[in-house]
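the two lines:
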Amino acid sequence: MSQGVMVRRNVHIDLRVNGETQEASFAPYKTLLEVLREDLGLTGTKHGCELGECGACAVLVDGEPQLSCLVLAVECEGRSIETVEGMAKGAELHPLQAAFADLGAAQCGYCTPGILMTAKALLEREPSPTRDRIREAISGNLCRCTGYQQIYEAVEEAARRMKESA
Amino acid sequence: MMRLPWFEFRAPSSVAEAARILAAEGPDAMPIAGGTDLLPNMKRRHQTPRTLVSLRRIESLKKVSNGAGLTLGAGLTLTEVIHEPKAQPYGALRQAAAQVATVHLRNMGTLGGNLCLDTRCTYYNQNYEWRKAIDFCLKKDGGICWVATASKRCVAMSSTDCAPALIAIGAKAKLVSATDERELALESLYNNDGIEYLKRRPDEILTEIRLPPAAGWRSTYWKLRRRGAFDFPVLGVAAAARFAKDGTVEEARIALGAVASRPFLVPKAAEALVGKKLTDDVIAEAATLAASRAKPMDNADLDLYWRKQVAADFVGYALRELRGDDMRGTRLRIARQIL
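prediction for all of em together
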C-alpha cells in the first residue's frame, strides 16, 4: 500500500469549556489536556503521568470525570468540558474549593484540581456521600503528599455547606 | 513529555462506514473506542497507526437488547455496563467491569476495548527510550523475549478482566467487516500469543457481545492485583454454575485470566463440579485442577511463585461465593471493596 505523504493539517473546531464556546485550531494528535493548557491557556488542569495512572488531569466531560490526557481534543466537539477554572463564580470560591482551603486539604496542590473536579461530579450526583463513597470516587486520584484524610474531610465539609446553603 | 504521533482522524457514524474505512486503509488503520489502552500505547510508540477510526459516534455500538439472553453493544463504557439494570443477573461481568482500572478510566474505556486490550509485559509497557535501551523486545521492534530468552513466542500476558468473566458466562462476540460478519464463542477470539493475541482481523470491528440467558446461573469474578483501587490483574478467576434446587451443580465453567497470553476455560476443573454439591472437598479438588493450568510468567507485578500459589485459593473463593457463602470479608480484604 502506498504510504504517500501525510497531509499535516490542523483541525478547527468549537470547544465548549466552562460554559463558553471557543474556537480552537490544533494538530489532531493533541489530547484535551494539551489543548486546554497550550492552546486555551487553561493551566489549572495539571499534567501528571500522561498515561492515565494519576488523575491529575481529570476534568468533567459532559459532567463525568474523565482523564484529559487520554481524551483526543478532536473528539470533544459538541461536548461540555468543565475545568477547575470554571468552579469559582467571580471572587466566590466553590464550596469544595473553600472547604479544601479551610481544612488544609491541599498540600503541594498538584493533585487538587483533579480531585476538585472529581469531587464536584460526585456531589452533583450524591449530595451526601458516605466516607466510603468519597474514597471510591477519588480512588483514581493520587496524592503523593498522602493527604487523603484531609481531602475526605474537606469533601464531607463541602457537602455539609452545600446542603445548608441549598 | 510524551506526545501522540501524527495520525489522520476519522469519525464515522455507522458500523458500515467504519468497516469501509478500515477495509480501504488496510492494517495501518486502527479503530479507537475509549482510547484508554491505545492512546498510552501510542504515546510510547507501541502502535503508530496512520489513521484512527473513532467508534464513539456510532450509536448502534451502545445498544442493549434482550432476546434469548442479553446483547451488549461493545461501545458501552464500563461504567454503563456496571449500572446496566439488564446486566445485573450476570454477576461476574459486573464484578469484573467494576474492578477495571479506576472510576475515571471506567467512564472512558469500553467493554469492547477491554476485550481487545493489548497484552502486557514489564519489558513492553515502557516508553520508547526505555525499550530502546534494552534493544527492544520480541513483541515490538526487537528480536528477543526478555522474559523467556529462548522463547520463539511472545509471552506478554492477557490483562482483560471482562474476558474471563464473559467466557465463564458463555458469551459470544460478533465481528463485522465490510465484506462479512461472524460470531464466535468469546474464548475463540483469543490466541495464546502475546503478539497475535486476537483472532480479530485488522478490518473487523467487535460490535456486540451476546450473553446466554442467566436463568438458573450464578457467576462471579475474583481479581488479584496490588492496589484495590487500580492495577491490571495479575490473576483473574471467573466461575459460573447452574444449580439444581438441591444445590447440585448441573453445569459449570471456570475461566482464568492474566496467567497466559489469552484468557481460557479449564473444562477439567468445571467437569469435576458437575453432578456434585459444592462441598469443601469438591471445591478443593476443582481448585487444584484449575490452578494447575495457571502458568504465569515473570513479566508482571507481584512474585511469580506466589501468584501461581494463590490461584487455587482464588478458585476456592469463587466457588465458595457461588455456593452461597458470605465472602464479603474476604472480598474486602482482597478487592478493598464489597462489589
